[in-house]
Amino acid sequence: MKAKSANRYPPELRERAVRMLPEHRGEYDSEPDAIRAISSKPGCHYDTLRAWLRQHKTDVHGDVAPALADGGLTVDERQRLKELERENRELRRSNDILRQASAYFVQAELDRHWKK
Q1: Is 38:30 a contact under the CB 8 Å cutoff?
Q2: pLDDT by residue (tens digit) across 42-53?
Q3: Which of 14, 34, 62, 96 could in theory staple to 28 by disulfide, Cβ–Cβ 3.0 to 4.6 A?
Q4: One CATH from 3.40.50.450, 1.10.10.10, 3.40.50.300, 2.70.98.70 for 1-72
Q5: pTM of the shown model
């Protein structure tokens, strides 16, 4: 599931807003000031643009802040992780079904030998 901001803004707008930051960074005293000023142009919130910038840095440069909740994974890596987790759940469920079926058939075989 994507975040709300990912659905609200087209990818072209996000990319353009992120590209504007380094282009206009020199006009502002700090990066937060630049983000604050530029975020009003596409009409997004300061935190939204900051998150886009953080994700862009992770995707392109591999820059990872140690405190990031997602571990600094790129979008592709997060997608792959979700797929692997889903596959892992399915395999565990299958193994559990096979284990139960095996126990059932073993018990049925043991019962059959006792009845002879």
Answers
A1: no
A2: 888 889 889 888
A3: 34
A4: 1.10.10.10
A5: 0.47
